[in-house]
Amino acid sequence: MSFSRSLLVVGLLALAGCGSSSDFADLRSYMDEVRAKPKGAIEPLPTFQPYESFTYRAASLRSPFQPPVKIDVVARQKGSAEIKPDESRVKQFLEGFNIETFEMVGTLRNDRELFALVNGAGGVHRVKVGDYLGRNHGKIILIDESKVDVMEIVPDGEGGWLERPRSLTLKERS
């Protein structure tokens, strides 16, 4: 038992040594410095620069890693003075939409003429030869069982107008 008593005595001495005030001298001096500072003086927050977003605007430009495209100006079609759209006529409903949004889905026939069914502009529409379709003054010139031929009048970029043929082919269900 003497060993256990001696161990107990050593433990009590070690605990008594932890309570000495000389070990906390540095902590006491730091606390005295903090208490000596004037009360209410708070350092201002650092100023941060606002984030400025960057929008990449060169996505539609030519890639710098590809050679420039050479455009042959001589081969370009020139407009004609006698070709121009009739601006005085009343626009039809289907002229308010791009022709690319339409697809031919069928035909109807009566005793007199053949109609085409085109899907687009929010539904299926019945059109006939002479109707207009698309934003480029596209006039329907021919309808058969498999396609609708449209002649568009488009500007040539130099003040004239060009006729451009387009076709809507029958979309068959797969």
UniProtKB/TrEMBL annotation:
Residues 1-25 form the signal peptide. Keywords: Lipoprotein, Signal. The keyword Lipoprotein applies. The keyword Flavoprotein does not apply. This is Type 4a pilus biogenesis lipoprotein PilP. PROSITE patterns: PROKAR_LIPOPROTEIN.
